[in-house]
Design brief:
Its EC number is 2.5.1.19. By secondary structure, this protein is an alpha/beta fold. It is 28% helix and 23% strand. The strands form seven sheets. A four-stranded mixed sheet has the order 4-17-19-18, with helices on one face. A four-stranded mixed sheet has the order 6-7-5-16, covered by helices on one side. Bound molecules: shikimate-3-phosphate and phosphoenolpyruvate. The site of shikimate-3-phosphate has 13 residues, from helix 3 and helix 5.
Length: 443
C-alpha cells in the first residue's frame, strides 16, 4: 500500500509531452531485487551532447543532422527554445536542424534545465528582437548572475530588473561584439560553456577568463571545446581561460553518445546486487563525466571490463565506502551517495558545494531523504559524509530532481518499501527510466 505523498496531485508524478511539459502520472514503488541482476542495456543519448549539438546546429551555416539525440524534457525544451527563435527542427530518431536568421519576439521556457537557461541567452543576444527567458519556480534560484554580467560586458543588452536571475529579457540586436571577459564560474561550468558555444558568431569571438574558487565539471568544459572544434570552430582551453575565434560553424552530422551519467544507477545495481550490468555502445574515448564511473565503481568493489559489447560492471557481493573529490563529476553525486549508503564502510565526497544550486539543493535533499529511511548522511561545507546504517522503507521525496529518482531506485533494490514521490520528474533526462529499470530486473 503506497504511503501518502506530502505533495498535492498536480505537483506529483508526471509524464512528458512533446513540448517538454509534464503531466500527471501515478506514484512508483521502487522494486527490490530478489537476486543478482544480469542485464545488457542500450541507453538514450547524452543530454549534454544533445543540447550542445542543437545550439551549434542553430548557429551553423548549413543544416545539421543530430544522430540519436536524447528526447527528454531538457532537450525538448532546448528544441522549443531554438524553434521560438526561428530555427527549424524536424525528425524523430534523428533531428534535422535548419538554421535561420534568429529573431524575436520570443518567450523561452527553460524549465529546470541548466543547459537551456545558460546556453540560450547568448544565442538570444544574436537574435533580432526581444527574448524573454524564464523557467520553473526553482530555475529562478539557480545561478545566472555571472552570465548576465559577462554577456553585458561582451555587448549584449539584458533587462533583469536588478534580479541577476531568471526571468529576464534579452534585447537582441542581431549581433554581439564579443572580446575578453572575466567571470566567476565557480557556481556552474555552464556559465562558461554558454558563452563559448555562441562565441563563434560574436564579431570578435570570445576569450573567457575565470577568477574565483575552482570551476566544477571540467569534463563538460572539455566537451564544449571538443564539440566546437568538431564543428570547425577554432577553440582552445588553458588554465582557467578559454578562447573561441569568430568564424563559421559547420553543419553536417553530429552523432550523440549514450548518456553515461544516466548509466550510474544501472551500473550501481550490479554492485548492490552482486550481479552484472553491461551498457552497450560505451565510447572508447569521451569527454562525458560519466566515464569516471569506471574508476569510481572499481574503487567501490566492482570489476569493470570493456569490450565490443560495451562496458560491463560486476559486483562481488560487497560495496566498499570511498573518499572521492567529485567536483569534476558532480552530477554523479546522488547515485554515488545512494551506493555509499548501502556500503560496508563510510564514504566522504567533497568538491561539490555547487550542488546546492542544482535542480534542488542536492546536499540537503540527500541528507533529508536518506536519513528519513534511517540513514546517517551528514552535510559538510563542500560535500557529504555517509555512514552506512540499516535502512527501512518510506517515502523518498524527489524535489523535481531526476537524479533523486535514480538514487531512490538504487536504494530500493536493497531496501523494501521505498516509495518514490513524483517519479515522473525523471523525464528531465530519462523518460524511459522505470521501463529500463524493470527490464534490467527482468534480465
Ligand atoms: O554543461 C553541461 O552539460 C553540464 C554541466 C554540469 O553543470 P554544473 O557545472 O553546473 O555542475 C552538470 O552538472 C550538468 O548536469 C550538465
Ligand atoms: C545538474 C544537472 O542538470 P542541469 O543541466 O539542469 O544543470 C544534472 O543533470 O545533474
Amino acid at each position: 500500500m503506497p504511503l501518502p505523498s506530502r505533495c498535492p496531485p498536480a505537483h506529483r508524478d508526471r509524464v512528458l509531452t512533446r513540448t517538454g511539459n509534464l503531466t500527471y502520472m501515478p506514484d512508483w514503488t521502487a522494486p527490490s531485487a530478489d537476486g543478482p541482476v544480469a542485464a545488457t542495456l542500450a541507453l538514450p543519448g547524452s543530454k549534454s551532447m544533445t543540447n550542445r549539438a542543437l545550439i551549434l546546429a542553430a548557429l551553423a551555416s548549413a543544416p545539421t543532422v543530430v544522430r540519436r539525440p536524447l528526447r527528454s524534457r531538457d532537450t525538448l525544451l532546448m528544441a522549443g527554445a531554438l524553434r521560438a527563435l526561428g530555427v527549424g527542427i524536424t525528425g524523430e530518431t534523428d533531428w534535422t536542424v535548419t538554421p535561420a536568421e534568429l529573431r524575436g519576439p520570443a518567450r523561452i521556457d527553460a524549465g529546470l534545465a541548466g543547459t537551456v537557461m545558460r546556453f540560450v541567452p547568448p544565442v538570444a543576444a544574436l537574435a533580432d528582437g526581444e527574448v524573454i527567458v524564464d523557467g520553473d519556480p526553482r530555475a529562478r534560484d539557480r545561478p545566472m548572475g555571472p552570465l548576465i554580467t559577462a554577456l553585458r560586458a561582451l555587448g549584449a543588452e539584458i533587462d533583469d530588473a536588478g534580479r541577476s536571475s531568471l526571468p529576464f529579457t534579452v534585447r537582441g540586436r542581431g549581433r554581439v561584439a564579443g572580446g575578453t571577459v572575466t567571470i566567476d564560474a565557480s557556481s556552474s561550468s555552464q556559465l562558461v560553456s554558454g558563452l563559448l558555444l555562441a562565441a563563434p558568431r560574436f564579431d570578435k569571438g570570445a576569450e573567457v577568463r575565470h577568477e574565483g574558487p575552482p570551476v566544477p565539471s571540467a569534463p563538460h568544459l572539455e566537451m564544449t571545446v571538443r564539440m566546437l572544434r568538431s564543428a570547425g570552430v577554432p577553440a582552445e582551453a588553458g588554465e582557467n581561460v578559454w578562447r573561441v575565434g569568430p568564424g563559421t560553424v559547420d553543419g553536417g552530422e553530429c552523432p550523440i553518445e549514450p548518456d553515461l551519467s544516466n548509466a550510474a544507477q544501472f551500473l550501481g545495481a550490479a554492485l548492490v546486487t552482486g550481479g552484472r550490468v553491461t551498457v552497450r555502445d560505451w565510447p572508447a574515448e569521451t569527454a562525458q563525466p560519466g566515464d569516471a564511473l569506471r574508476g569510481l565503481l572499481e574503487r567501490m568493489g566492482a570489476t569493470v571490463s570493456y569490450d565490443a559489447d560495451g562496458l560491463t560492471v560486476r559486483g562481488g557481493g560487497t560495496v566498499e565506502g570511498i573518499e572521492a573529490d567529485l567536483r569534476d563529476v558532480g552530477e554523479l553525486t546522488p547515485v554515488m551517495t545512494a551506493l555509499a549508503a548501502l556500503a560496508g564502510s563510510p564514504s566522504r565526497f567533497t568538491g561539490i558545494a555547487h550542488l546546492r544550486g542544482h535542480e534542488t539543493d542536492r546536499l540537503a535533499a540527500l541528507v533529508a531523504e536518506i536519513n528519513g529511511l534511517g540513514g546517517d548522511v551528514r552535510e559538510l561545507a563542500d560535500g557529504l559524509e555517509i555512514r552506512p546504517r540499516p535502512l527501512h522503507g518510506g517515502m523518498f521525496h524527489t524535489y523535481d530532481d531526476h537524479r533523486m529518482v535514480m538514487a531512490a531506485a538504487l536504494l530500493g533494490l536493497a531496501v523494501p518499501g521505498v516509495e518514490v514521490e513524483n517519479v515522473g520528474t525523471v523525464a528531465k533526462t530519462l523518460p524511459e527510466f522505470t521501463a529500463l529499470w524493470t527490464r534490467m530486473l527482468e534480465g
